Amino acid sequence: MTCEDEVDEDLVLSPMVDTDSDEEESPGPQVTVQSRDAEKSVYADLDAKCDKATHPFSSQLERLTHGDPLTDPEQVLSAVDSPDYCIERCHFADLTVAALRRRIMTSRCPLIITGMGSHMAPGSQALGLELLSELLGLDCVVPVRGQGDIKWIEFLERLCHCEQLYLADISVARHYPWLFQHVRIPRYFLHCFSHRTRHQLSMAYDTPALFVGTPGTRSSLHIDQMCSNFWMFLSEGRKHWITFHPDDTKLLSPTLDQEDQIYRFRSLSELEADPEASSSLRKARKIEFTISAGDLLFIPHGTPHEVTNLTATCAISANFFDQSNIKESLEQTARRLAEREPGSERHSNLALILNALEEIDWPDLEEDLSPEDDLPRSGDEMAGCFPCHEPLKWRKAVTFRTP
């Protein structure tokens, strides 16, 4: 699965999953709510608490993750001809779990939730490039899109030389499970159906995923697989998002990937350079916005989006399924299953997913909510861990002997 990316693109609990392919199934964690200003101050001070002099790339990383705000692209916070399609910002203290889940059922607009920063990073330091260096170790091997496996120290060196590298959609559970000591899941999304099946699905270990990108790297226009909603918490840097209303997908000149039953797109720059495609593109409802460190972003299922890293960035993201998209997800999975050869591994994997999600009579939203979901919660109560991830946080890295 992926988040910012479509389902497209070492302690390894199982072989690294190609997120373009189908999921493999296998058997198998009272405080007063702070004011908005106080919360912002707490998160802004997290990096200052670490000893930057101990890190070999401190000054370069600080420059790359802060960048020059004057170079940020223009933001279009509501569609030109349809102001109802817009991006909104809301502090978590003003948004209960129940309120967000009801909103997801009725709105096709993205949402930025603020104030979660220090609660998503339970330690004294945000999960940024410097903390990752401590947790992974400079000799740790990381899979980089289009580059294969390279050492983390090489990734940092090339990052500081402004090479365009993207460590994208790397499963925390499968690759670096000890990061769960520093990564939490927003309570808004802990109800995900993929974690509530009778048989544990391997896809429950695919996300949350780690994204680390250098300035200028991007995920070209796409829609996430399996009609999944997703969220992203940006712990460091700035990302620029362009999203389109899901109902306007066909105005973006897509082609249907018959095997995966999903639309594929050319990049926005290619569409804009094509006279016919650009004419259609201009009719689509579009918004553009930038998220910064500490922001938690929600994107509804079926949303075409393109994302650019304005600075070096570090983010955690995950797909999820609930009452808002389970019907569409099951329908798409059934169509994908029909395209697979019976008896093949891909057919078997998809059948396991479909059966596990389809056999449950999922409750209506209001039946699924608890009385506490309608109540404001303290920041520390607004993030947690999926049960299947809880024991993974104590796993340690494996060091292989030199031949």
Please sum up the structure shown.
Residues 1-38 are annotated as: Disordered. The protein is of the alpha+beta class.
Q: Mean pLDDT score, rounded?
A: 84
Query: What radius of gyration results from the CA coordinates?
Result: 20 Å
CATH class, named Mainly Beta
Shape: globular
- List the strand order in the largest sheet: 3-4-16-11-18-9-7
Percentage of residues in helical conformation? 10-25%
DSSP strand content: 15-25%
CATH fold call: Jelly Rolls
Distance between the termini: 35 Å
Care to count the β-strands? 19
The CATH architecture assignment turns out to be Sandwich
Structural write-up:
The protein has 403 residues and is an alpha+beta fold. It has a single domain, classed as Jelly Rolls (Sandwich), CATH 2.60.120. The chain contains twelve helices and 19 strands. It has helices at residues 36-45, 58-66, 97-106, 117-120, 129-136, 152-160, 172-175, 268-273, 275-281, 326-338, 345-358, 365-368; strands at residues 78-79, 82-86, 88-91, 111-114, 141-144, 148-151, 166-171, 185-186, 209-213, 218-222, 229-236, 238-244, 255-257, 262-264, 286-292, 296-299, 305-309, 313-320, 383-384. The protein has a seven-stranded mixed β-sheet. Strand 13 (255-257) and strand 14 (262-264) form a beta hairpin. Helix 10 packs antiparallel against helix 11 (345-358). Pfam families: Cupin_8. Residues 1-11 have a biased composition (Acidic residues). One of its GO terms (molecular function) is histone H4R3 demethylase activity.
